[in-house]
Design brief:
single chain, mainly beta, 5-stranded antiparallel beta sheet, 4-stranded antiparallel beta sheet, 33 strands, about 40% strand
């Protein structure tokens, strides 16, 4: 109790004269977005999501982020994207949350696509996968207002958005798995047409965020880099250097469309563990001068009390998570998932029998801690369903894992056995008949290289 009182007094004394925002200081702001017209700003932390009036720097509304389907807990991060008019946001966390949120009515729906990036016209560029073939995916634009998708292109591998979502680059893969840069395609969102090549000098695969008047902006740790149209470069050191104690990716460039001569950066100041201040700082692209600092954090007495309560709540939640995480049944589940692989590293080689098996994913642990496998064979008709103890599959001396498909054994050509023959003279028969008889004997044994399965992972 004395420790809590000391922290409270320290914090209230430290920031007694600071400007007051709205976000609770127990949670640094993880994302910030400005509307296309520059009149509104949306900020989001693990504690609150807030829509601001930019001119007055006053909150229009405040919502608990947990109500958007994002759990409130320690050591938690999420990634958010927003459409340019701040009607929708996509939240993707570091566990299993993927939600599309309508911030006009706060409806939350599950987001079932991998991609989470809005285009300049408020659509969401998504991939519709075809896992059976290479370069067989489709690019579609999803309209969050109508939930309709429009197919834009087929026979591609992946996509990347750049220039603030105004353009999409379509990628294909070569046979060796690398990107085929000779077959890149570019789609212009504004004209809704394919263009022969990029209309700017931007490399869409760099950490480029957006362009302004021929300039384009990159960012690294504690600095903003402005590549200018005249080939000069300006480095802007952020007002609050990024604190590793918060997060290595805490600083974010904020997409803002209203002023091409400025750039905005979400920055943070760590007062002490469990207490942070967040700001949106505006810099001049011409000379890097700090023009404005918008403090997002409430530093009043009530906010400090709330921060202490929030940190206690997060500590309790973390303790409960650890308890559940370490339950024996959950430990078994994690051990099972590890041997089942991550969707492709499922092939195992038995060091003693030399046979190859496939650990079947998405199967439960059977009685006796048995794991379902397929005993593979070069002849698919001879594949058998088998079970192995979990502890044996965890033994690296007994089993070796591979993410490559097994190949036909070169020693037996997939037969699983090797034949040896030799000749001998049957002497008694020779003496009886007066003829010399040569007898050929063939002996077949299991292939010593593949153990009889006809496959190898070597």
């Amino acid at each position: 109790m004395l420790k809590k009182i000391f922290i409270y007094l320290f914090l209230t004394t430290t920031i007694a004269n600071a400007q007051t925002g709205v976000h609770t200081p127990s949670d640094w702001v993880q994302d910030a977005f400005f509307s296309r017209d520059g009149k509104k700003c949306l900020t989001i932390s693990t504690a609150e999501t807030i829509l601001w009036d930019v001119a007055s720097k006053k909150a229009i509304w405040v919502k608990k982020t947990a109500e958007l389907g994002v759990p409130y807990k320690s050591y938690y991060s999420f990634f958010t994207t927003a459409d340019p008019d701040l009607n929708f946001i996509l939240i993707r966390d570091n566990t299993s949350v993927r939600n599309l949120v309508d911030v006009n009515n706060f409806n939350v729906t599950r987001w079932n696509y991998d991609k989470c990036h809005f285009t300049y016209d408020g659509k969401i560029a998504v991939l519709i996968y075809n896992f059976e073939k290479n370069n067989a995916n489709k690019l579609a634009l999803f309209d969050p207002k109508t939930a309709q998708t429009e197919i834009i292109a087929e026979k591609i591998y992946d996509i990347a958005l750049y220039e603030g979502g105004k353009k999409i680059v379509l990628l294909k893969k070569k046979g060796n798995g690398s990107i085929d840069y000779d077959k890149l395609q570019y789609f212009d969102v504004e004209t809704r047409k394919f263009i022969d090549k990029s209309t700017s000098s931007i490399d869409p695969f760099r950490n480029v965020y957006y362009t302004k008047n021929g300039n384009y902006v990159l960012y690294g740790k504690s600095e903003i880099i402005v590549k200018k149209a005249d080939n000069t470069e300006l480095k802007i050191n952020t007002h609050y250097p990024n604190a590793d104690q918060i997060s290595s990716y805490a600083q974010r460039l904020c997409p803002n469309y209203d002023n091409p001569d400025t750039v905005k950066m979400l920055e943070h100041k760590r007062v002490q563990d469990g207490y942070y201040l967040s700001f949106i700082n505006t810099y001049a692209i011409s000379n890097g001068v700090l023009l404005d600092s918008f403090e997002l954090t409430n530093t009043g007495a009530k906010a400090t009390e709330d921060a202490l309560v929030n940190n206690i709540t997060k500590t309790k939640n973390l303790e409960e998570e650890k308890r559940i995480f370490n339950l024996p049944e959950n430990l078994l589940k994690r051990r099972l998932l590890k041997v089942q692989g991550d969707g492709y590293k499922n092939y195992v080689y038995h060091s003693k029998t030399k046979c190859v098996y496939y650990v079947v994913p998405d199967k439960p642990l059977y009685q006796g801690d048995l794991v379902r496998m397929d005993a593979l064979n070069d002849d698919p008709k001879l594949i058998q369903e088998v079970y192995e103890k979990l502890e044996n599959l965890e033994n690296p001396v007994l089993y070796r894992y591979s993410n490559t498909k097994p190949k036909t054994c070169p020693h037996c050509n997939g037969k699983g056995s090797i034949s040896k023959s030799f000749q001998r003279t049957v002497a008694d028969y020779e003496y009886t008949t007066g003829k010399k008889l040569v007898e050929t004997t063939t002996h077949t044994n299991s292939c010593g290289n593949c153990g009889g399965c006809g496959l190898t992972l070597n």
